[in-house]
Design a protein that fits this description.
Rossmann fold, Rna Polymerase Sigma Factor, Chain: A, 3 domains, 7-stranded parallel sheet, 16 helices, binds nicotinamide-adenine-dinucleotide, binds magnesium ion
Amino acid sequence: MKPVQHITVLGATGSIGTSTLDVLRRHPQQFSVFALSAATQVDALLAQCLEFAPRYAVMSSAAHAQQLAQRLREHSSPTQVLQEADALEQIAAHPEVDTVMGAIVGAAGLAPCLAAARAGKRLLLANKEALVVGGALFMQAVQDNGCTLIPIDSEHSAIFQCLPEDASTWGQRLHSVILTASGGPFRQRDPHTLAQVTVAEACKHPNFSMGRKISVDSATMMNKALEVIEARWLFHLQPEQIRVVIHPEQIIHSMVQMRDSSVLAQLGTPDMRVPIACGLSWPERIASGVAPLDFTQLAGLSFEEADAQRFPGLHLSWQALRAPEGTTAILNAANEIAVAAFLEERLRFDRIHAVNLATLEQLIPDEKPASVPALMALDAQARQVAQTMVQRWSL
Ligand code: NAD
Ligand code: MG
């Protein structure tokens, strides 16, 4: 029998975090939860701690941490709440941890994911923004420290599953990758009405229930733009080797085209527990709890090109990848600010792209960010510029 794997789930209360715990719950002999983290959801994290009894729990503010610690004491729980400033890095890099699920949303996940990479963990990466911001630096840390990086984003998991296990052969065999996109809730909406989009409309994804930020990113297709950048790093690709096609049924999760024009695809019911189970057990396979595809019930698979007028943000990814390094971090920061402003009803939906574009035009990195503090400084600068743009267009 294999030794039990000890797991830290960063962002345990979110959509990916709860799906991860759902898979772990099915395999108590194989996995043990070592630590859980959340930003502010005390009740949700408390319930998870009582069920999984991790050694440590971490929350984003001292006030929330104290509340959680108090509630855990009332339940005589053995879980200890860590409150140091670097608590997330501690639970990601702890010597007793084998695997880290990176399921925090946004650039906030960079430091703990990087800590896991530097400690040579098996890192299951859902937090695409960490890679979009960290770029070359992140991949260098993975390589230098023997980290096993496994993508959880469904498109990248699909590509990963289609590629040979020996990554050193990818370069010779691979021609390009084709990322599939659902097209989100506005695939067929008149682009002239995008100014009137409400928060509820943008957060209503046709096939998935996801966190609010990624839901808005799916509606603008900035999610796909971030995924293009993510694919560039994960699979060592040139920007022109990455293509995007809209596939509304979300049955094919992405494809790889080999040099001989053979195309391999990964298919399945659209449910994030599949890539999560795949990442947890790779290269073995375990049950995910997801119903298999019934091909006799599929009405058909369709494909279409992404309309640049409806989804102007998609092309910013290739533009940012060809620009000086650090530009992708600027794009990510601008988008986080713009999406947050939209969710707070301070910015029109169609202005998200305007903020991203204006920030990219105003801020050009003068040198390659060579350290995490340099990246974070660029991220902070981009947030400031983006905030000014939000104020200019504020509702
Ligand atoms: P979510 O908003 O549902 O959950 C985010 C989690 O991170 C929560 O536990 C929250 O408490 C925590 N968190 C938020 N901000 C934080 C901060 N500043 N510091 C520390 N913790 C913080 O998000 P999600 O939909 O689960 O997405 C998580 C990541 O996975 C994102 O990067 C997203 O792009 C990616 N992803 C999600 C899906 C999906 O289906 N939801 C699919 C593919 C990739
Ligand atoms: Mg995805």
